[in-house]
Model the fold of this input.
Amino acid sequence: MTLNLNKPIKFSPLHRLQWEEAQQKDVILYPEGMVELNQSSAEILKCCDGTRNLDQIVSALELKFETTGLKNDITAFLEVALKNGWIQQN
Amino acid sequence: MAGFNKIKSTPPRWLLAELTYACPLQCPYCSNPVDYAKYQSELSTEDWKRVLTQARKMGAVQLGFSGGEPLTRKDLAELVKHAGDLGYYSNLITSGYGLTEERIVQLKDAGLDHIQISIQASTQELSDHLAGTESYQRKREVAHLIKKHGYPMVLCVVIHRENIHEMPHILEMAEELGADYLELANAQYYGWAHLNRDLLLPTKEQFEQAEQIAQAFKEKVAGKMKIYYVVPDFYEDRPKACMNGWGTTFLTIAPDGVALPCHSARDLPGLDCPNIKDYSIDEIWNESKAFNFFRGFEWMKEPCSSCDEKEKDFGGCRCQAYLLTGDMYNADPVCSKSLNHSVIQKAIDSAKVSAALSDNEKPLIFRNSKNSRDMA
Ligand code: SF4
Ligand code: SF4
Done:
């Protein structure tokens, strides 16, 4: 399974992304499990709204954080996310 | 609750709410206490709500409604709703028997996040036999309904000598039912499974063969279905890291309100497990004797206390140490460094001998109130 560059990416409906006050962290919740996210991973996943493809997510984040050159890191993380079932492409 | 040596603790993450010991099924490997019949009282709706609120405030986020059969509680949807409002990720851990479409919808509306159902085997005859109740067909229908209403579905099959030969069919069944997660849980020998161990413990060959089949399947369905594989620790040479460390992560509340660091902890002597009717979750978690008992490493004896692996497995399971060596401070005898390690081989040998006996000579003891009272 690899990331399709053209298709929009959406956060999996079988998982839940949520801010945890007690841990001061975003986490992914799923049956019998939880993954704690660092801030950048959480920001990437929040962009996976089912309307944007990889390039669009990269642009959105580069704009938001006023930087460039994020594409490799974002791609690498999304590959992991796809493999773990956190995101989907139809 | 004064006077006990307190060790700095991390907040609970997992709350297991055992709503009831009542269950229409009679699985002979049930992890409920063998003498469960003597604990008749159940917490009120208000008590449960208070527990959920307090534990959430401390940082618990994963919530399991289990039992017994949690569906027997009439206030289940109300508790699910309360949990949802608090921001828990709520899991219903059920036999599936007795789950109607109406209830599935009602729970969904209340905010339930996922349902785990258990099936005893992949064939009707064996599944119904192990459950002690005709339930296989109904469970299959319920599995379809769970998917139909958009829940992630975890299918749980407890693996032991009676069904381990069905492994290929169990995997097929999981695929056919559309499970998102398949939990292949080799029986853990506490509670009723300890009682029936001679009849449930598979041989090493059986276990290795089944594991190979499951591993191959895991690769085949990667990306579609996740497999949780719980190993039978009798065939390992290091114990499991019990509860991720005592009093670090898991909080179990028994039907009568007793708070437990692990679901078998009420069988351990002298812990004085506190009741939520008497103390807040904060007091229980941070200050009670029971939750501090095996926190950290101070309590350990040799070979654990000087072992360089103690931060990996915390000396293994306290309940297993107690059940099999009679001393809850001992290393889990599964560990090859344990001086009592030979009890494991003895158990394996004893199970082998029993495999040659007929059902009449050595019948399974089913989990029901009559047997529970006889056992107490
Ligand atoms: S001796 Fe104790 S701490 Fe060391 S590996 Fe064995 S059980 Fe774990
Ligand atoms: S103490 Fe033992 S029975 Fe209890 S959870 Fe730990 S591993 Fe299990």
User: Anything to note?
Assistant: The pocket of iron/sulfur cluster (ligand 1) is lined by residues B 238-239, 303-304, 307, 309-310, 313, 315-316, 331-332, 335, 337 (CB under 6 Å). Chain B has 15 helices and nine strands. The first strand of chain B starts at residue 14 and ends at 18.
